Amino acid sequence: MEKKEEKNYIISTIVENKPGVLYRASNMFRKRAFNIDSISVGPTERKDLARMTITINGDEPIVEQLVKQLGKLIDVIKISVLNPQNTVIRELALIKLHVADAKARSDIINFVNIFRGRIVDVSIGSMMVEITGTPDKIDAFLTLATTFGIKEIARTGITALVRG
Amino acid sequence: MVKMSGSHALIEALYKEKVDVIFGLPGGAIMPVYDVLRDSKIRHILVRHEQSAAHMAEGYARASGKVGVCMATSGPGATNLVTGIANAYMDSSPIIAITGQVPRAMIGKDAFQETDIIGITTPITKYNFQPRHASEIPETVKMAFQIASTGRPGPVVIDLPKDVQTEVADMDFPEKIEIRGYKPNISPHPLQIEKATELLTKAERPFILAGGGVIISNASQNLQAISELLLAPVATTFMGKGSFPENHPLSLGVIGMHGTLEANKSILEADVLLAVGTRFSDRSTGKIDEFCPDAKIIQIDIDPSEVGKNRAIDVPIVGDVGKTLIELHNSLSKRLEKKESSLWSKRIQQIKDELRDKVRINQEKDLVPQKVLKELREMLPIDAIVTTEVGQNQMWASLYFKVYKPRTFISSGGLGTMGFGFPAAIGVKVARPDVPVFDIAGDGSFTMTANSLATSVSENIPVTVVILNNSMLGMVAQWQRLFYNRRYSAVELGECPNFVKLAEAFGAQGFRVDSIDEFKKAVKQALESHVTTVIDVPIPPEENVFPMIPAGKGLREIIY
Q1: How far is B251 from chain A (nearest CA, A)?
Q2: Are the C-beta atoms of B476 and B486 separated by less than 8 Å?
Q3: Which domain holds residue A151?
């Protein structure tokens, strides 16, 4: 099979909201050797359904096979490969930063404001920041943040919804 | 609504699914079910090892087209089923495995004989269930049968905590059930049928590759009709053996690593390949890049994930094989007239005539597997069912035991499970008591599940085992001869055990034969006596299976 161009894909699925569904999905990824970038699961407007959002970097045949394998899982009810042009994509990151002095503290506050983030915790020598946005925006903030020194990062992975 | 225990509900639900037999072995965590089973109309067949119960259920399923059911206790009982479940998964066989589980409150506490069978079997089942309340059991069983037997069939596990088995609840047995995440696509898209018709009517050298899906879908007649209309030769995959009569003028036998010369050579001349119910396994195609690189390929499969998984496809058709072949035939017959012969069909006949006797067969000896199997074929009626073990015996059977009807050749294809054939034969015989059932075995494989002799004899399920006995793990030995410079490592089994005495110890009859005449006499005795029979046939220890395509090589590189 010819090598096709690799791209980032976001796959949004509606699944049964019951124990073991995430295991079945992640087990399939492992078994079929799909290398997933992120996966996030959360409830939907209906109690019995959950939304599982998967991001993967790959070529078209890989993504097509991933979608087909997901479709075979009995607990997966609906699958859509999202078109980034038509989709609101968000990720949340919590970042604990090293704060050397008062200047660093005010610089961090400035940057967080520019990125429309929030300071969620402050202690002597560190601050915790919350940034929400596209993964690119979070990456950009992290690049800036390295100048202060990053202590810890927690990222949720992407979640997404189609517009309209 | 009826009030009853979980165990009663299970047996009642199985009964409603028309289950007439369960293969199993009891233990602590499944005792409430066994207590109810004792008084039910469902026959229980006691095995001596749970692996055999799963193989028996699969043999039963593949011979009958119905769902086979096996049952075991928690822990080791459940893990012993695993090989059989994996086998059914690889070969798309509908079986249901019921396992006991420790009581709900003990789950996750590493209780005695607890094992996470849901976690263990998730990658090798179509689905698995662990009802947490007895009231879920009727619905669970209904779903399990629907999932196992429809679409691309496969195994389903139902894991029942012991206190769910004893819990009493109001039971509602649904007649039908809707599973919202499970809707197999049965009907092919008309546009794809049109595209396939277009390709096939223009084809000069159409070729059909028939897989196990043809047998599962009971589509052999439809396949034959298309083959005859197109004058397209048919090679089957190993799993497809039996889907097309091997004495038909357009039959080329089995393709692949140990396929016939005719099949492996002529497929490379095809300009359009119609692949039906096959997943292009590496054992069938050889090196995939060299498999019909210039042919246009049409693939029919009910499982969308199989279409284009291993090979790019020109016309993919997702749908039930039988239904699709009927629609394709209707569409083709509007454009094509049936003919007696074509340039291509003559070419195929020429290839067959040229290659028929090209494969070396040991002429010095009589008791060689090729001759033994041809003899066996002549002695068995056309509807006799044969199972095989795994290894050389299996590949000789594939090459030299010709099969004329679907569901009369049952073997472990995808997983390649040594020890499958004998218990599978017992399951087959339960489904089809009206026909002779033979297991073509090797000494290595048969020894793995020979304890099923106890089941065969004590449950009065007479089958015959023909052991092609080379005192070797023959296929491994063959690879060591060919690819490891004859350095034999851990393949010599010696003359152990004495199979006649082994058979007799279990109450079966055993024969050791030293000539073709003695072999024929033993087969005749087996056919007439209706007693479990073991026929030990000593064959030359260094006999190879040919033709052979070395692993990772293309079809062209066949040796013979």
Answers
A1: 30
A2: no
A3: 88-162
Tens digits of residue pLDDT in A1-49: 455 688 889 999 999 999 999 999 999 999 999 999 999 999 999 999 9
Which residue, among B140, B309, B314, would best test binding to A if mutated, counting the most A CBs under 10 Å from its CB? B309
Residue B144 CA to residue B154 CA, distance in Å, equals 10
pLDDT mean over B346-365: 90
The Cα–Cα gap between B478 and B467 comes to: 18
State pLDDT tens for residues B153-203. Answer: 999 999 999 999 999 999 999 999 999 999 998 999 999 999 999 999 999
Q: Is B405 a catalytic residue?
A: no
Rounded Cα gap, residues B178 and B216, in angstroms: 23
Looking at residue A110, which CATH number applies to its domain?
3.30.70.1150
d(CA B373, CA B389): 14
Q: Which of B126, B142, B162, B296 is catalytic?
A: B162
* B contacts of A46 (beta carbons < 8 Å): none
- Residue A12 pairs in a beta bridge with A53, A80
Buried b (16+ CB within 10 A) or exposed e, B58-71: bbbbbbebbbbbbb
Q: Is the peptide bond prior to B547 cis by the omega test (within 30 degrees of 0)? A: yes
Q: Nearest chain A residue to B143 by CA: give it.
A: A74
CATH code of the domain made up of B369-538: 3.40.50.970
Euclidean distance between CA atoms B330 and B324, whole angstroms: 10
Helices B6-16 and B137-149: angle between axes, nearest 10 degrees = 40
- Choose the mutation target among A15, A49, A72 for the interface with B, i.e. most B CBs under 10 Å: A72
Q: Which of A56, A82, A108 is the last residue of a domain?
A: A82
**Residue B265 and residue B177: Cα distance in Å, rounded?**
48
B295 to each of B208, B315, B336, B387, how far by Cα in Å? 12, 12, 21, 34
Residue A12 belongs to a domain: yes
Concerning whether B350 is annotated as a catalytic residue, the answer is: no
Domain membership of residue A1 (yes or no) is no
**Superfamily for B2-171?**
Thiamin diphosphate (ThDP)-binding fold, Pyr/PP domains (3.40.50.970)
Residue B54 · residue B22 · CB < 8 Å: no
- Domain B190-355 class? alpha beta
Smallest CA–CA distance, residue B122 to chain A, in Å, is 7
Please give the distance of CA B161 from its chain centroid, rounded to a whole number: 31
pLDDT higher than 50, residue B290? yes
A57 phi and psi angles, rounded to 5 deg: -105, 120
On whether residue A72 sits in a domain, the answer given is: yes
DSSP percent split of chain B into helix, strand, coil, nearest 5: 40, 15, 40
Handedness of CA B74, B177, B278, A28 (dihedral sign): negative
Q: Give chain A's domain count.
A: 2
**Strand-strand pairing, A150-155 and A87-98:** antiparallel
* ipTM score of complex: 0.89
Residue B245 clears pLDDT 70, i.e. is over it: yes
Flag whether residue A75 sits within 8 Å of chain B, measured between CB atoms: yes
- Please indicate, yes or no, whether residues A95 and A67 belong to a single structural domain of this protein: no
**A62: Cα within 13 Å, side-chain hemisphere:** 20
